[in-house]
């Protein structure tokens, strides 16, 4: 349904601006008049997020999508307003008026209209799979069923803010090493394609036997000069090919298997998988969703195919009467300590609380490990760059030393 930006006058002749969805401009005018407003201008919104074009919009305009931080802030505002006694429709209207993002305003306006028409919030959210995840929708549905919607939304906001804070810290730690890598690579490329050929050209004109490091340096420089255009063309094609392969089920599984075999990456992925699994499963169980349904929801949002297979097996074992810890004990992708903590939670009858502790524990470990690795990248890159520069200098200086010895 189209969405329109409007300016209107209320009963006290005050100007009000907002958005409204309707089948046509005339329908928007009639809807505003039915609300006691007198439209002044009605223009179709340029950023329309209808369910049909949401996925396409996300693909072709990734920089203009609704950011997780915006979604988390919106959820926090709704929870606060509903906790203060606002009805859901009134809370949505208040959030719409305070939201700066035109994209999010459009989605919220359409949600409000769906709720006014009689849909529940969870049913309305299902029309926007590109904005609201399966966990988000299922937790909202559980909150509506139990009458604790504002508490559930507070929990969703906490999860979103925690994840965004962790991503921000990692991005901040990675910024400097990435800049160093790009700058260092550009400098080395310039040296190998412009400076080194001019210097080594003198040695080749002498028609003398050159030291092995010098010959290697000349070969590398000639390769970069002769095949630069091919390299520039091949790299994007290779990247696109790998991306297309990654989209296939078989290719995705091969990539996941390869990642879990890498020494450092494997440990990071295991901790990340355990943290997300425990966080999502604990939140769903805490909000009244049965174990089997919760496992199915977590499986639906799991990107890693190997971990998804482990969840499928766990769900099958749980349906046969086994405990969650017992089904996870033989899964290599989940750390043994996490399984032990889950078993304690099952025995004590506080599984959801123990799952929250598992998530917090591995999130802290993961953050410390990632920050530690990023802090090591800077000196490691300096050492690597120093070795490369040293090799270039040595390769250039060796022939010069030999020429000096011949003169002496």
Provide a brief overview of the structure.
The protein has helices spanning 25-34, 54-60, 68-83, 88-98, 102-116, 121-125, 134-146, 149-205, 212-226, 228-247, 249-259, 263-286, 291-300, 305-319, 324-328, 336-348, 351-407, and strands at 3-9, 15-21, 38-44. With 408 residues, the chain is mostly helical.
Form type: extended
- Give the count of helical stretches: 17
CATH topology of the domain at 196-408: Receptor-associated Protein
Q: Could you give the count of β-strands?
A: 3
Distance between the termini: 89 Å
**Can you write the helix and strand succession as a string?**
EEHEHHHHHHHHHHHHHHHH
* CATH hierarchy, class of the domain at 196-408: Mainly Alpha
Lateral arrangement of strands in the main beta sheet: 2-1-3
Helix share, percent:
over 70%
Mean pLDDT level: 80
Describe the structure.
By secondary structure, the protein is mostly helical. Among the domains are: 1-46; 196-408, Receptor-associated Protein, CATH 1.20.81.30. Helices cover 75% and strands 5% of the residues. The chain has helices at residues 25-34, 54-60, 68-83, 88-98, 102-116, 121-125, 134-146, 149-205, 212-226, 228-247, 249-259, 263-286, 291-300, 305-319, 324-328, 336-348, 351-407; strands at residues 3-9, 15-21, 38-44. Strands 2-1-3 form a three-stranded antiparallel beta sheet. β1 (3-9) and β2 form a beta hairpin. The longest helix is centred in the middle third of the chain and has 57 residues, at 149-205. The protein is extended and about 95 Å long. The protein starts with a strand and ends with a helix.
